């Protein structure tokens, strides 16, 4: 998740070890194309190990409260998973969540936006959605 609340990527993994953290960081760096200035994670030691290996110059902050934005972004995923009574496989979860988060980013409302700006952003989001899904060409 970036500083604006946009979910960058989701990677479903069975373990939270250094190998899994390294895989996640490589995927994020490849997708973003730039190294971040600061990385904020929970206090899991494997993130520190992966960061030291892949991006040693990046500042790493580990604090209980700093990671709240990322943790809260996972709540809709967890809710959806409970409703579905678990995904059948990690691959199914990865396929669903990769697409779901990109669509959710389009319609997500930032916390510090007024109602008029929100209406304009929502109208733009629906316009983009119509173009992407091909609804605009049918009308």
How would you characterize this protein structure?
The chain is built from seven helices and two strands; from the N terminus they run αβαβααααα. It is mainly alpha-helical. Strands 1-2 form a two-stranded parallel sheet. The N and C termini lie far apart (35 Å). The mean pLDDT is 76.
Number of helices: 7
What shape does the CA trace take?
A: globular
Mean pLDDT: 76
Structural class: mainly alpha
Outline the biggest β-sheet. Answer: 2 strands, parallel
| Strand fraction | 5-15%
* Beta strand count: 2
Distance between the termini: 35 Å
Low-confidence stretches: none
Q: How much helix, percentage-wise, in residues?
A: 55-70%
**Rg:** 17 Å
**SSE succession:** HEHEHHHHH
In short:
With 139 residues, this protein is mostly helical.
How would the blueprint of this fold be written?
Layout: H1 18-32, E1 38-41, H2 45-54, E2 59-62, H3 68-73, H4 75-83, H5 90-107, H6 115-133, H7 135-138
Parallel strand pairs: 1-2
Helix pairs in contact: 1-2
């Amino acid at each position: 998740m970036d500083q604006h609340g946009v979910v960058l990527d989701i990677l479903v993994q069975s373990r939270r070890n250094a190998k899994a953290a390294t895989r996640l960081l490589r995927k994020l760096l490849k997708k973003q194309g730039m190294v971040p200035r600061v990385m904020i994670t929970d206090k899991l030691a494997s993130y520190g190990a992966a960061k030291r290996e892949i991006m040693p110059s990046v500042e790493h902050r580990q604090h209980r409260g700093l990671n709240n934005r990322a943790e809260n972004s996972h709540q809709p995923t967890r809710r959806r998973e409970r409703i579905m009574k678990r995904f059948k496989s990690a691959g199914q979860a990865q396929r669903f969540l990769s697409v779901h988060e990109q669509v959710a980013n389009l319609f997500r409302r930032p916390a510090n936006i007024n109602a008029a700006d929100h209406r304009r952003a929502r109208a733009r989001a629906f316009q983009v959605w119509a173009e992407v899904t091909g609804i605009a060409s049918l009308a």
